[in-house]
Amino acid sequence: MTIATSGLHHVTAIAGDPQRNVDFYLRALGLRLVKTTVNFDDPGTYHLYYGDEAGAPGSLITFFPWRDAPSGRRGAGQATTTSLSVPANSLGWWKQHLTGLGVEVGEVAARDGEEALGFRDPDGLALALVAHPQGDPRAPWDNGHVPAEHAIRGLHSVTLSVHRDEATAGMLGDLGLRLVAEEGDRLRFAAGDGGPGAFVDVQVSPDAPRGLVAAGTVHHVAWRAPDEETQRRWRAELVDDGVEVTSVLDRQYFRSIYFREPGGTLLEIATDEPGFTADEPLLELGRALKLPPWLEPNREQIENLLPTLDLPSENDLERG
């Protein structure tokens, strides 16, 4: 293909209780809730976006919190671990911080020249904090719960679990990623110049059970396109290659197309534009329920379906 992504745009997972989700990602992980909206395909549930101050592409982890969702199963055909980037020499602080909150964490492990600390969120979603030796220049969101010198900078990588790697590797190559490391049954691909926010690891597990997408698992992984024109060209190239791709969908804060890589994981290409200040100012991101124009006439009905969320003041840009 003639087009290449510059890195990850966001990762979307499924959660259970939305208040528990908010409390964990704002207070335990120190992220900002940059948009409170609904699942446009199922407006009876929230769509919650967490990231840096403005929700820059590459900083985002998002959730569909269905209160009665059954627990999912990690396995082949899924993104099985979502890794977040933190500064070097921060993992000791994070281990103490998370343990103090009652989160079960693993031991710090070294891989690909980096150090990683694995743990799970309250729904069982597998997460890791990764310290890249060259650092991460992205600015963190400073909400007072996590010191800025240790705070999350954004996404680091995702791990795709597959039974066989050849076809998945070919699809990643079509997206413009290149193989940069191979260790046993694990392959690392990088977009652009590589580094945090531009990695995907492929874990080859021939005997792994198929994953079940439900609470505590990743729904899809989104890659960046700079604008709508590039996205349309990219879609045309995918279709020409025989990939089944959705039409371009308006997600209000970006435009999206969806397709599956051969191993089974649902992928998205999302535009960087227009961003989360499209319908509210930077100072107020995430505080109010925002609906797209086509759902606004149903606001009262939608609000009656959604549980009330208590958003802590730490989500404000100015906390005076």
UniProtKB/TrEMBL annotation:
CDD domains noted in UniProt: PcpA_C_like, PcpA_N_like
Keyword Oxidoreductase part of the UniProt annotation: yes
Classification via Pfam families: Glyoxalase
Highest taxon of source: Bacteria
MF (Gene Ontology): dioxygenase activity
Keyword Oxidoreductase: yes
Sequence ranges assigned to domain VOC in this UniProt record: 7-132, 154-272
Keywords noted in UniProt: Dioxygenase, Oxidoreductase
Annotated PROSITE patterns: VOC
Name this polypeptide is given: Ring-cleaving dioxygenase
Species this chain originates from: Saccharopolyspora cebuensis
